[in-house]
Fold:
Amino acid sequence: MSKQRRETILRAALALCLSLVGWTAPSAEAWAAHAVPDSHWDRRPMRSGYGGCRVPYQMETDTDEVHDTVIAVINYINLTTPCIWEQRTFADPAWVAITENDFNLLWFTDLAASSQGLGKLGGRQELRICHGCNDFDLILHEMGHAMGLMHEHQRPDRDQFVNIYRGNVQDSAQGAFDIRYEGTTLGLPYDVRSVMHYTGMSFMSPWAYAACGFSCSTIEIKGYPQGVLSSTYFTDTDLEAMRRRYPVPTRLIAMHSGRCIDIPNADGSQGNPVQQFDCHEGANQGWLLRWSKKEGDTDYYVVESADLGANGMCLDVQWASQEPGAPVILWPCHGGDSQLFSFTKAGQLITGYLVRAKHSNQCLDVAWADENNGAAVVQSTCTSGGNQIWGQGNRPERLTREPPDPRCGNPRDPC
Structure:
């Protein structure tokens, strides 16, 4: 018998006994991450600007097992995602306090860990772990919530992929199975293996388990009655969700000239037209490709400056013009169609992209195919010429899905 099944049997038996003596499970409503609106953590300095995110934390755990697993999860997050978790300093006004509950009965109800909300709340926010609970995937799941990832099974489209059996779910956990219609899919496919997805036995009612044991489940994949088994680590879809939520700075490089889209003189003023210029690692050439929405098979992004001197400024076609030759300027980000761009591969043998404005269906273009510094960036009818093909630079090569040795970086048990 697997460890998971042994634990499920023990949890169900103990929870059944507790319910018979009148003990009520703690409400998941109060702590489930679905209940709190989310906010992004602050960007951090990176090459070519500010991007990703930094999550300050404070360790308040009691046992070595939990402490060491938390450190291993933090190392994994820091290696594989655009975000880093760092020890809180007194200069940090918002942080995650990682606490350990003394009351181990939380373990018997499946509420073995919980995040106070989605993303950054402001001030001190708790991430609770039950006493001695040192499951890597459990802690990673809750840290995902703290960074703003919602439950996969609460997506608006979940009913196309899974069945939810409400009658088998503990009463206190019903809210954690509700669809979040205000949530976003980030344009990504449904992932039943996501570490943010509940398993088939999550929050199983002791009465349901007593009635049918492992033939019951709370969630099952449509057409696959054996239930759901989520991943121990972030899946490729989870990692892409993190990249879309917290993009890293990249440069946009014109293929015909090898020069980059640049904010002239690093002047982030509203209405300043952008240009091409010799590529460097200054923040005035860093751009954050923030996913906005998906229409059909096309993903649209806003292109936000990664320069704090142009904070909140995005590429925009001036006056939302439909005319070829209209300049591309900096403008406060609003996400309207004149700020939405799709990135389409220019060809099978070409590594660059055509960057197409949604409102006009025209492409970003270096005017007159000029190869010199200072040439204007405009929109023009798409021709797939070299002055309309844009490469991307500065994608961090360190990001990988492979989990590191969990001991690495742990001062109590170094590699």
Notes: The longest strand covers residues 287-295. The mean pLDDT is 85. Residues 10 and 108 are 8 Å apart (CA to CA). The longest helix spans residues 3-20.
